[in-house]
Amino acid sequence: MAAIAAPPPQPHPPASAHHHHHHRRRARLPRLAAASSSSSSSRFRRRFSSSSSSSSPSSAPSPSPSSSSSSSYGGSGGGGGGEIHYASPPPPPPAAPTGAPVYVTLPADAVGPGGGVARRRAMAASLAALAGAGVAGVAVELWWGVVERQGPGVYDWAGYLELAAMARRYGLRVRAILAFHQCGAGPHDPPWIPLPQWVLEEMDKLPDLSYTDRYQRRNKEYISLGCDILPILKGRSPMQAYSDFMRSFRDAFKEYLGAIVTEVQIGMGPGGELRYPSCPTETLSQAGISSELGEFQCYDKFMQASLSARAQLIGMQDWGNGGPAGTDGSRQNPEETSFFRADGGCWNTPYGRFFLEWYSGMLLLHGERLCMVADAVFSGSGVTIAGKVSGIHWHYYTCSHPSELTAGYYNTLLRNGYLPITQMFARYKAALCCSCFDLRDEERNNSKSSPEGTLRQLMVAAKMCNLPLNGENSVTRLDDTSLNQVIRSSRLYSGGTSGTSFSFNYVRMNKSLFEFHNWNRFTKFVRQMSDARTFLARLEFRRGQHYLSSMSVVWVVSRACA
């Protein structure tokens, strides 16, 4: 192990930094010390101010026995630089945040395809900066396609364990998102993280494991919920595979659960959301641009068998012969379709109600199964389980809400489709996550769209069930208009006296976050969202640990990224 060199001289901040430093108390982040080494990649080491008797450096916990035997970090994790070591024990677990705490979602490829932490030096500097800014914690996706990539039941948590250890060192909490879906639209759309190869092989052998629309287009973002309990994954059902994944996670992260890892969000569909892939996820991610009606995803043989059985049960066998006609999801105006139109549309007929109740009921059953499994696995561990609902808003001011119907939310002018979902979450004491907090109706170019109306309805349903709510932004941006809208939307839920808790996930961390003007906006936003007393206490706690001025954040992170 290389000897610890003397700390390099602190860089001179920009000229404007000297003016601000004496006028305002700034968030602080750790001073990084370079370690001398003969290798080309320098290793960063962090030192706390300690007594004369220093303890041995703390390191990331070793992988669990079920992890991959390879402990080296390859793939995209190889170019990340050195690790961060401590000359004193890590800080105690962070205190429970008050106010409306802010979390930051890490890059999707924080752990690369090879299972190692990508860009370690940049990640360490970024976490230190977030901690100094008063952020409560980070959210990180743990990808099925990364952890169980080597084969069924072979789990490699090493990279994610290292991330958890890094978060603990900086006093940050962790929200773990168990991601059973693919990331990206394909290899051309980085970061690209598909389902495990052995799962894709089974889907190639049996195409009906994929969601299918009436044009027989297959979607491999997530396994069709029609085969939730069928042993189609080398002898295991998808639910068994998800359950085994959760149990392995619980065992591997045992020392972190409840103190550092305080919440586990269960991926329930494409994009990690409880919905059908009625529109491609990459289309949904372009908030405000999409206005497709979407396609019903009920044409694989497993969904068709379920629909047929339900129709026979009520003595209407003809209703089980495929999905509804006259939908034409490629259109943007529901009035041009016979199913979704307001006057005489099939959605409000006995057949339409039968089909939509079955379609949305299957999605609700899928969510209930996952909540039931998660509740059993994490009971007594000290973590809160959570699920996410998509904010599909572009036909909210229509009678039939077609884009919500095709996504599985039976929400119309005549029916509240979100209350059954929040009631299901409430049965398992699960938190609800939803987006749209940064979107305003006046920014929409579609008069039928209402992100604010969609969000208000979700909030009301969550409050009726006394659910903890995690808000998210739909677009990664840091302009004042967007951040102020988040604050206004958040106060609708967190400002009451019902006792419901609220927090916000900023999606997601990237290099532009640490640009000078963006960073100033972000730290101001965190102070506005969080309780002032808690924020100041965190600053005082970190001041004693030799944290740099926030004016140096841009320099430190940009050097680490370079």
Automatic annotation (TrEMBL):
Keyword Hydrolase attached: yes
Biased composition (Gly residues): 74-83
Enzyme class: hydrolase
Entry EC number(s): 3.2.1.2
Keywords, ordered alphabetically: Carbohydrate metabolism, Glycosidase, Hydrolase, Polysaccharide degradation
Catalytic activity line of the entry: Hydrolysis of (1->4)-alpha-D-glucosidic linkages in polysaccharides so as to remove successive maltose units from the non-reducing ends of the chains
A UniProt-annotated Pfam family: Glyco_hydro_14
Region Disordered, residue ranges: 1-100
Compositional bias segments (type: Low complexity): 30-42, 49-72
Pro residues: compositionally biased ranges: 1-14
Biased composition (Basic residues): 17-29
Active-site residues (renumbered): 273, 472
Domain of life: Eukaryota
Keyword Transmembrane appears in the UniProt entry: no
PANTHER family on file: BETA-AMYLASE, BETA-AMYLASE 1, CHLOROPLASTIC
Protein name, as recorded: Beta-amylase
Organism: Oryza nivara
High-level lineage: Eukaryota, Viridiplantae, Streptophyta, Embryophyta, Tracheophyta
